[in-house]
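Quick illustration, no need to memorize.
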Amino acid sequence: MRKTLLLLVTTIIFSCQSKNDEKKLLVVKPLKEIKIEKNKDSLIYKLNENTIVINGDTLQLESPFIYSFQGKINGNKNIQIHLSNQLSSEYGGYSKTASVYIDGENDIFYCYFDKDKKEDYYIANIYDNDSDKIIGKLKLYNLSTEEMYIEYLLDKKNYKIYPSKTFPVYSCYDEIDYTLFDSREAFKNDESMRKFTPSRDYNFFAEIVSDNAVFDNLETKLKYLTSDSLSIKNYKKWKHNFSLEKSKNEEENYSSENLNVASPVFVDSNIYVVSDFSYSYMGGAHGMMRTAYNNYDVATGKNITIEQIINTADKDFIAFYENRIKSDYGDGVLADKIPMTDNFYLLPTGITFSYAPYELLGFAAGEPHVFFSYEELKPFILKNTILDKYNSN
């Protein structure tokens, strides 16, 4: 009887392991045909399947995706890479962007993949967030196939990183809405008429799909990589929309742009961190950007707020927080009262607080980040929180 039970248990374990090993990669499908005008006299017209021309610029429409990779590199350290494909904030093209995290690091690194002109792969450089130093190189092979993998080049060694068999996979969606105001007829005799670019609204998000029991609550409670339920209400009916409108007044010709992109940046058995990047341009010298971070408890699927894990009301913490910002960025360019942000992301090494442009510094400074290790946060960490998993020493 004991032998029979042992055999049964062994069979179950082996079956579960086999299921995990045989996890299928959710390969993206080509976009459906885009229905727009074929008239080349129009400012927006179809060139061929999935390729359009907008005011003379050619845009190849691509399928949206998120792929998560997991592996080992130097010193047997865990590395995870989350690769996504969406329109970039610069008009006219798609961006294959990746977030990279390596065990023990205090930062999430970002990089952009470009297609190698001579070889059949994409390549990216990973830069240190505080300098222009290249700290690693990535090569992406066999994109969107079952044979896809990333090669990590570090210290003259090559490491192969494969799609994760542990992390969730994603069913991705996007919506593009272009509108171009054509004033050629109204101003065809006006030599001063400038060229106009289209307005654009773009949304990119993903649905979580997981057969790993660890992420059951996360998949159920979160479901999508965005908390904006209105934007995803009818996502299955989303279509790429391109329209041409005639204007009568020069004031009606303008360029505006709105983008929203949600994607994962870190995941383990405890926390799941999602970035939500937004960009808006409504005229003027430049647009405005913001990266919001959401930290989810994998066990409950619930969003984690800073007040749940840190005693932010402690006067010593407030002083410590403000002094760190002054130390990192200098108090000469900051307001007298430094605001504390509720925008942050968790890593196994500590907490990074993120500010929008102009909250601390001018636009040229981008989005300032301030990191605090768990060691220095010990006096302010609340008891019985998820941080106990990382702050046990």
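The longest strand covers residues 169-182.
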